[in-house]
Amino acid sequence: MRVQARGLRSFAKAMARRPTVVMSSLILVFYVAMALVPGLFTQLSPTTQDLRNAWLPPVWTGEGSPGHLLGTDNLGRDVLSRIVHGTPAALLVAVATFVGAGSVGLVMGLLSGFYGGKIDDFLTFWINIQLAFPFLLIAIVLLMFLPPGIGTIIMVIIFTTWVVYARVVRAVVLRIRELTYIEAARALGASDFWLLVKHVVPNVLAPLLTIGTLQMGRVVILEASLSFLGLGVPPPTPTWGGMLSDGRRYMLAAPWLATIPGLVLMLFVLSINILGDFLRDHFDPKLRI
User: For residue 164, how many C-alpha atoms fall within 13 Å in the half-sphere facing its CB?
Assistant: First the structure.
């Protein structure tokens, strides 16, 4: 317990020395709050249409309405409400794909790195084949033959991203399995399962968490890209990518319809990437200055 407390204090002090990391963490907490408690930010429905109030600009332009702080779209739907209610989809995709792809990648990486031989050859061959194809192209092809929905998107992204986790885990395991204490434990009669659970897995969790944090930003952009192309979450469920797709047609007449969701998406991904860079630097002593 004392070691864990010491580790948490060290982590907190390292974070406090990086104002950008603190700010990014607070921004991510804000996004999580929007996803979990949308009623704190807006009481308006994201799907209710009101053509009498269509094309209202943001309130700071002087021509907007206090009841629609970020304006309305071509159907009179509140932009702020659609952004807030689009946050759960982005967070669900990011977290679910991290858990799913991370779990698959962890198992495959452990098998490939620890046992080697034909298992390693086959998994490495499969990983290289999958990485040879464009990330977005695989997702588009799969979604053309699968029913639309957020569950389908999550499964497709898991299928296209687990190889990233597997490569990282395999590289770490290849280094760990040759260490002296692993050989000593094996000489004392420790089983492969015990070695994996007791000695190998704890050493790969930190790199897995780091790469997972960085992948979350990439996954959110992928989901937004699929929604932008019309292959994401079907209407009327609001998504940031769907709002970008709708707003691009009115860039000259109503630029806020695309720029505001774009800025929300950019800020979310930027915050995740900054936090991911901090985790990588903190958990890898070789990168510490």
Answer: 23
3-state secondary structure of 2: helix
Computed from CA positions of residues 142, 152, 91, 263, in that sequence, does the dihedral angle turn out positive or negative? Answer: positive
Cα separation, 16 vs 89, in Å, equals 30
- Distance in angstroms (rounded) separating the CA atoms of residues 55 and 61: 13
DSSP state of 97: H
Residue with tokens 């094996």: 186
Dist CA 124 CA 192 (whole Å): 21
Kindly report the pTM of this predicted structure: 0.86
Name which of 279, 265, 277 is nearest 27 in CA terms: 265
**CB-based contacts of 45, cutoff 8 Å, min separation 6:** 78, 81
Phi, psi values for residue 65, rounded to 5°: -120, 135
Phi/psi at 201 (5° precision): -55, -45
pLDDT tens, residue order, the chain (289 aa): 554 556 677 777 888 888 999 999 999 999 999 999 999 999 999 999 988 989 999 998 888 888 899 999 989 999 999 999 999 999 999 999 999 999 999 999 999 998 888 888 998 898 888 888 887 788 888 888 888 788 889 999 999 899 999 999 999 898 888 788 777 887 778 788 888 888 888 888 888 888 888 888 888 888 888 888 878 888 788 999 889 888 888 888 899 999 999 999 999 999 998 988 888 777 765 544 4
